Amino acid sequence: MENNEKFIDTLRHDTAHVLAMAVQELFPETQVTIGPVIENGFYYDFDRKDPFTDKDLKHII
Q1: Containing domain of residue 36, as a range?
Q2: What is the 3-state secondary structure (H, E, C) of 6-58?
Q3: Distance between CA atoms of 25 and 53, rounded to whole angstroms?
Q4: How confident is the prediction for the chain on average, in pLDDT?
Q5: Count of domains forming the chain
């Protein structure tokens, strides 16, 4: 079980970095701030002049 949890944490960590890279490639003016792994996934905070729109989010995913 412990190995599975380590794998999931690593997967979440790496996926967060992929997300950050994708956002910066699509929106170069965006600054990456923080993106920790959390119990049920991960999140990333981004700093940019204008908030992301629904259209932006569709490009990211």
Answers
A1: 2-60
A2: HHHHHHHHHHHHHHHHHHHHHCCCCEEEECCEECCEECCEEECCCCCCHHHHH
A3: 17
A4: 91
A5: 1
**pTM for the model:** 0.81
Q: Output the six-digit token pair for 27.
A: 């929106």
Predicted local confidence at residue 35, as pLDDT: 84
CATH number at residue 46: 3.30.980.10
CB atoms within 10 A of CB 23: 20
Interatomic CA distance for residues 37 and 12, integer angstroms:
6
For residue 22, give Cα distances in angstroms to 1, 4, 33, 60.
Answer: 31, 27, 14, 7
Tokens coding 56: 């932006």
Structure tokens at 41: 């996934």
